[in-house]
Amino acid sequence: MSDVMITKAKRATQYIFLVCGLALSSWAPLVPLAKDRLQVNEAELGLLLLLLGGGALVTMPLSGFFISRAGTRKVILASVLLTAFLLPCLLVIANVYLMGIAVFAFGCGIGTIDVAMNSHGVQVQNAYKKPIMSSLHGLFSVGGLLGSIGLGFLIKAGLDPLFAAVAISAVLIALLAFQFRNLLDYTSEKEITRKFSHINEDEAVTSRLQWLNVSVLLLGVMCFIAFLSEGAVLDWSAILLRDHKNVSAEFSGMGYAAFSVAMAVMRLAGDSLISKLNSKTVVVGGSLIAAAGIVILVFSPWIAGFLAGFILLGIGAANIVPVFFSEGGRIKGLSPAVTIPVISTMGYAGQLAGPALLGFIAHHFSLNLAFEIIALLFVIVAVLYTFRK
Question: Which domains does the chain have, with CATH numbers?
Fold first, then answer.
């Protein structure tokens, strides 16, 4: 493969990460509209939201099967088109059962994009021979900010919500069409797999049955912890600030905003950081910084301390998961089509389980203790990564 092809594939992959973040976050402003239209209570709405995560979780392990047979480019095409088609549907379906099916299918599309784009990203990174995964995840974060703000802005500006959703879907399809031909094709991916995973085509078939690899499972466990922590901060940070730090309700979201901005900035700068340091320094140091941020957040009596804690948490946690995906794409004897779905599934399971586990701990003990346990989990990640082979 030529350097020009690899550079184009890198840029195309950046757009796909942006597309995934944009698609997922565009659902957030639609949730209140769906609740009103379907006339469901909070518990029923919670089940609908759970179906989105369930759809992603079900599809992620299956994505490797499709990737290994068709390549990530075709899987990305199908899943983005499915997601773009379903997004406006989430605004018009009035039957709660049909809505459940649509939300589940939307989650399937998002989960498949997630696995395919990460698998494609590690292939491009291997061929590019420089770290790129952190900036890719940074663009996912940028897409998340644009989606949640953009769709809401269009609706606030007076555009009919359905037309606003159609406009976002059109942007998703346009970005895909603009860069689709620059994504790696199936043949190029097989060539990179043979070169960097040290397996031939026959061994690749067998290796799909060998995902119970110690290195894969260890990365999956650490990814589970990292995603669990991120999911818990997403769902519980505002409650912590409002109910335990006496921050007014209208400002209770500032903690997660500070965390998100810090994480996005650090991920965009993460490739350069990893190149100058190394993966171990980034993961171990980042985990300890994140843990320190939580300690400051829990014990500080001042608003400046709360914000500093969330910022340190975002800085520390930002590049941990991208490193795990990079490591998963370089395990000898295993194709990324095997390793990335496993790591993604375990990570996403942590993101779904995190809020529930923290809620259980907060109910029986305290929310402060729940956040202290997150700090402990980050320390565990640092220890596991330090001593991994």
Answer: 3-197 (1.20.1250.20), 214-387 (1.20.1250.20)
